[in-house]
Amino acid sequence: MIDRLREQIQERLDQLAGEADRLRKALVALGPRSSKAPTRKAPARKPPVSKPAEAAATKPAGSSTKRAPARRASKPAARSPRRTAPGATKAAVLTALADGEAMTAGQVADKTGLARGTVSTMLSKLAKSGEVQKAERGYRLAAAAPTTPSSPAQ
To answer: In this structure, what DSSP letter does residue 147 have?
Structure first.
């Protein structure tokens, strides 16, 4: 029983390794997407274990070679390859609003180079925290609140 399970697992691993090789070749054929190409190498493959006739006859029903359909995104993602540093988005949005003029999320996005959705989310968060305020059309920096002396350090 254990030998059959090992053979089935090895067979599935061989199938997956073959599929990974085909996907890597397809990726190479498509060409580099950006300046950074994937550098991950495939692990060394073991030669397939010959399967005795007995194991083929007792193959479980759920282990067919049918593949699940590939998932497709509704539209290609136009993301930058790296995330911004913590606080960088907030700083960029606040800097864009520094001239005191009310700006929409789209205007701030154009000025900062950030995605409009990212800017919109950040502006909503900043409005909730009181750092910016909603204007008739867009957002502006909140009026500077009078500074209060902080409590002494303990």
So the answer is: P
**Could you say which residues of the chain have pLDDT below 50?**
35, 37
Helical segments of 52-141, H only: 53-57, 88-96, 105-112, 116-129
CA distances from 149 to 53, 119, 143, 146, 152 (A): 84, 32, 18, 10, 9
Q: For the stretch 78-101, what's the b/e string if a residue is b when 16 or more beta carbons lie within 10 angstroms of its beta carbon?
A: eeeeeeeeeeebeebbeebbeeee
Helix, strand, coil percent values for the chain (each to nearest 5): 40, 5, 50
User: E strand or H helix at 25, and its extent?
Assistant: helix 2-30
Question: What SS3 state is found at 79?
Answer: coil
Looking at the chain, how many residues does it have?
A: 154
Q: Where in the chain does DSSP place strands (E)?
A: 132-135, 138-141
Give the contacts of 43 (CB within 8 A, at least 6 positions apart): 17
Contact between residue 116 and residue 106 where contact means Cβ atoms under 8 Å apart: yes
